[in-house]
Give the backbone structure.
Amino acid sequence: MSAPPRAVELGLVGCTVCGQVCRAPGPLAQAACPRCGAVLRRRKAGSLARSWAFLIAAFIFYIPANLLPIMRTVSLGDVDDNTILSGVVELWVKGSPDLAVIVFAASIMVPMLKFVVLATLLVCAQRRSRWAQVQRARLYRLVDLIGYWSMLDVFVVSLLTALVRFGFFSEVEPLPGVIYFGLTVILTMLASMSFDPRLTWDTDKDAP
Amino acid sequence: MSDEHKPGPYDDLPEPAVRRRRLNASLIWLVPTLAALVGLSLAVKAWLQQGPTIRISFASAEGVEADKTEVKYKNVVIGRVEAVDLSEDRKRVIVKVALNKSAESFATAGTRYWVERPRIGLGGVSGVGTLLSGSYIGADVGDSQERKAFFVGLENPPAVMRGAPGKSFVLHSDDLGSLDIGSPVYYRRIRVGRVSSYQLDEDGKGVTLRIFVDGPNDRYVTRSARFWNASGVDVSLGADGLKVNSQSLATVIAGGVAFQDPPGPHDTTPAAEDTRFTLFADRATAMAPPDGPGQYVRMRFDQSVRGLAVGAPVEFLGVNIGRVVSINLDYDAGRQRFPALVGALLYPQRLGRAYEKLAAAAASHGGEEGLLGTLVAHGLRAQMRVGNLLTGQMYVALDFVPNAPKATFDPRAKPLELPTAPGSFDKLQEQVVQIVDKVQKIPFDSIGRHLDDSLAGLDGALKQVNGQLLPQLNRTLEGAQQTLHSANGALSADAPLQRELGDTLEQLQRMARSLRALTDYLGVHPEALLRGRQDAPPPPAPPSPGRKP
């Protein structure tokens, strides 16, 4: 008995909201915390399935988000549609490499990072792998932290659309790409929220 | 490792409330399914909108950008440039265009593509909108059904869009002049069409132009319409001053075609599509009655032909009926003279009504030559006359010269030779020469000499007057002045003569007074004359000057 006992082993479950510790209910029962009424479960129900679902949906939307133009800028009658990547290229070419790097990091790297990290976490959790558990836990916290920060593009487009309204001289219009990009970010956030980090530590075959 | 081993401290923990399970976790798979459906629908939509891809070859890709330049038909976007590449021989630019699904009919033979850029030409400015929005590729759909994926782009926008209302006509001309594709066509100085194409004739001896006249103005092109090249400026110096006539300044520079119906009664049926017309050099030629076949005549002038040029008009009673086509010198060995042989083409039909009547009359005179013989017998002669006094340009006038010397006329000669008469200007020249001769006979030399002698005599006389008469006169005047001076001194108020005269007069007065006293005393005392003066009261005081004595 080197490892400390786990709540499951003790037949206990803690409320995730108010911290109340209760006796574990039957295996199929849906229990509620007697103190605060929050749903009480050992692990988030269907965590892996939900995370996978959201992640896959996010990945599907990520394709049109990159292929479709996200923003139309009209300056002096010159209409210019930009996708995320062409916007980055344009920023770089037109002499703002710093901005290009920021946009590239927020719009391309961060979502990709989230996909890879979440997929890794899910695969490892499914296989109950003992590989790099501490690092995986850190990765999860990182992904959770980044969260909506990759909404940068959406913020930029909505801000510009609202601010730049000079008719013929200058105008910014959102295009469908930005919707798909927003959906991608939201779905990755949902995926990371659905993931139960405690699964990282459920390495026993008989654990729930 | 079971619950029974560690019962103690957890027994008092609360039992959780148990509820019915509501949601099956597997329903969450609806989310990616939905996402997949959306993505799929996007893909299907994109695939459905995918039209044919065509390639267009241009001379230059100026203003064409990949992923940006649009293809427009009637200003509706029907496609977008995907890529711009060089052709294999690097002489052309190949533009790859993805057409929309709805624009499939634009990938057929006969469709024309061109790059719409701002163009500033002499005929005007076009495509100004593209200055700001950037160039685009314009398209004009053909009526063919044959599919085609490679097109050669036009360098200029086509002059006529397919399906535009109007008619196209064919003009035939000797040369193109300053016309070009897009040159305007004017009707009563209103722009109603443009030149749409031109090409050399098969035999290379002329140019065939196609013009397009927009509807509804195409109905003014009647069967008898006359077309002329409106690019020139007609400057005419007439009795009413200088007149400059042109269609418009742009036409002068860039060229243009004008048409109008001839004056007078004519066929006003609108001409059918592709009717052929002749393009005349200018309005006057276009409006002139038709020339008909030309008749060559030769004239022999015994005078200098200076000022007469090939192309100079031949006028009959002031009506232009032909032009000079050749000028040569001949040698007359018998008279040792060099007569000028002037050949001219006459168009008798230009005489209009007179020609018709003459032609009728000619029948009774044994053909046209016979009629000409009669006219010559009546004094018809060719004369060279000055057309322009400033430049000395001459023209040939056919006129009836009264009292013309009899001339021989051979009606069967080939070519016909018209008798000539010295021009009126030659007579004028003779008269001028006579006047000059007379002026030359005046003895200006001796007149000058005599005048010179007279002037020399006058000069001597004047010298005498100056040298002798004038000094004496001067002295005389000086003497007279001295005399007058002394007279002046004698007569002045303080002169001794004056003073003495005053004293004398005073003495005389005094004497008169004593004489009066004496006479008065003698009047009263006449005895005193004898006895001498007695003592008596003194005589009364002399009267005041105002009282009479």
Residues 97-126 of chain A form the longest helix (30 residues). The two ends of chain A are 20 Å apart (CA to CA). Residues 46-200 of chain A form one domain. The helical segments of chain A are 47-67, 84-93, 97-126, 133-146, 152-163, 177-194.
